[in-house]
Design brief:
- This protein is of the alpha/beta class and 303 residues long.
- The chain contains nine helices and twelve strands.
- The strands form three sheets. Strands 3-2-1-4-7 form a five-stranded mixed β-sheet.
- A hairpin with a 3-residue loop joins β1 and β2.
- The protein binds zinc ion.
- The site of zinc ion has 6 residues, from loops.
Amino acid sequence: VRRFVGLDFGGTAVKAGAVDAEGSVQDERSMPTELERGAADVLDRAARLARELGVEGALGVGIAGLVQRATGTLIESPNLSELNGVRLSAELGRRLGLRAEHVYLENDANVAALGEQWLGAGRGHDDVLVVTLGTGVGGGLILGGELFIGGSGFAGEIGHVVVDPSGIRCGCGSIGCLETLASATAAARRARERGLPADRPGDVEHLCDRARETGGPERELLLEIGRDLGRGLAYAVVLVDLSCFVFAGGFARALDLLEPGIRAGIEERTFGARKIVLQRAELGTSAGWLGAARLALERRAAR
Ligand SMILES: [Zn+2]
């Protein structure tokens, strides 16, 4: 069976595995990143892991940070700064006897999105937007079963469509982005604005528990956040007729509470009746390496 190997570099662990073209997982492993041992050591161990997994012909690599795809270079990563500026495709390729152009480097959120579309909550749908609800709102766009990157690599960043032009300033410089309204950080802020306790990181979870148990102002708030989220997602519906959304990240656990609002927000800003599918991500921390392996499969097949 032809194997496709994916690696997913995070600050604490490198997750990896091998999968066949049909998506059956052949092997799955991980190793501690241990960046303090130096960049060369991490790359040596990651290459050994890929070899043990039976890498042949191509390798997919996801990494938390900004990447330059053409040269396979990590430009900048907050969690993996020791690897900043390293030509990962060339370095891993050299260790594995692969050409650098057959080592496909991609941002970790994008490979995780691809993994969810291929084998997780989005399977069976060719067009999927994976929305990560955490401290910010991220997005990974899959069109026609392939990761859509765009010319400068920022496609799918749904967190920065403007939902409330009279709202607050976003980290990106714009005003009233979806991210300022529907991230976990935004949920905590909006809770405090109406006198609900949400000062510590775990408080959003508590807010959701309260909403489920007692309804009341917590439930109303999550309905409103959901509606703002739906208004943002409506851009994707109108632009590419997207109908399947997968939600990842910690705040996605609130999808049951957000869903009525999301549907109302989408309906309000789109025309024509559609069946919209809203799902929670299923693959957890395996999504990244699975998507990276998928990238190796699809890019190699395209050659
Ligand atoms: Zn923004």
